[in-house]
Amino acid sequence: NAGVTQTPKFQVLKTGQSMTLQCAQDMNHNSMYWYRQDPGMGLRLIYYSASEGTTDKGEVPNGYNVSRLNKREFSLRLESAAPSQTSVYFCASSERQGYGYTFGSGTRLTVV
Amino acid sequence: AQSVTQLDSQVPVFEEAPVELRCNYSSSVSVYLFWYVQYPNQGLQLLLKYLSGSTLVESINGFEAEFNKSQTSFHLRKPSVHISDTAEYFCAVTLGDKIIFGSGTRLSIRP
């Protein structure tokens, strides 16, 4: 039972490079989310997808784009990485509101 | 707008002592409330949740939280902590189809 799988686990980028963080869930959940975690700031929502075919901005969407490829997969893209995007990124999924999230193990991204 | 405030960024306690991690929220509507735990270098795991019914909810590892509507609080308690409880704890509240997290409380256990 894999749950939520994120790849890669670690990544170092140079300023201006692009990359895509991958997330897949095997629980048939409708909703998927991308958060970033920074020290002392908790988790901040970047984008979310309430259902297949829909995406919406969260608290901190600037500099990111997302794609809900199908019900299982929700990717996060950094088009031109900046040092301010150095963070730990978590993907999560939820069957529906109120049920809580299942989180992936995170991607630690460093932009130099 | 809804928000979640965790009043303590760090809480040091001795092993086998009781602990309370405080959480207050602001909301004009009924909410669902959660506590998540993050062990070092891991993702977040759901510890317990309040959806409706009894205001006291418990986890399988001895934690409990009480929903207090009048004080808009959802404090997390454990009567006797263990070294293995060392982690960061996040309070969270629903906002539509998404969840808003507090800034976290780091619980450190001293032997």
Largest pleated sheet of chain B: 6 strands, mixed
| Poorly predicted regions of chain B | none
The tally of helices of chain A reads 0
**Biggest chain-to-chain interface with counts:** A-B, 24 and 23 residues
Range of strand content of chain B: over 45%
State mean pLDDT of chain B (0 to 100 scale): 90
Strand content of chain A: over 45%
What are the secondary-structure elements of chain A, in order, as H or E? EEEEEEEEEEE
Query: Rg of chain A from C-alpha positions?
Result: 13 Å
List the helices and strands of chain B in order.
EEEEEEEEEEEE
User: Nearest-angstrom radius of gyration of chain B?
Assistant: 13 Å
Helix fraction bin of chain A: under 10%
What is the number of helices of chain B? 0
Compact description:
The complex is a heterodimer of chains A (112) and B (111). Chain A has 112 residues and is mainly beta. Chain A has strands spanning 4-7, 10-13, 19-25, 31-37, 43-49, 56-57, 64-68, 74-78, 87-94, 102-103, 107-111.
Structure description:
The complex is a heterodimer of chains A (about 110) and B (about 110). With about 110 residues, chain A is mainly β. Chain A contains no helices and 11 strands. Chain A has strands at about 5, 10-15, 20-25, 30-35, 45-50, 55, 65-70, 75-80, 85-95, 100-105, 105-110. In chain A, a hairpin with a 5-residue loop joins strand 7 (about 65-70) and strand 8 (about 75-80). The radius of gyration of chain A is 13 Å and the shape is globular. The N and C termini of chain A lie far apart (about 35 Å). The mean pLDDT of chain A is about 95. In chain B, the strands form 3 sheets. In chain B, strands 2, 5, 6, 10, 11 and 12 form a 6-stranded mixed beta sheet that branches. A 4-stranded antiparallel beta sheet of chain B has the order 3-9-8-7, with no helix packed on it. A two-stranded antiparallel ribbon of chain B has the order 1-4. Chain B is globular, with a radius of gyration of 13 Å. By secondary structure, chain B is mainly beta.
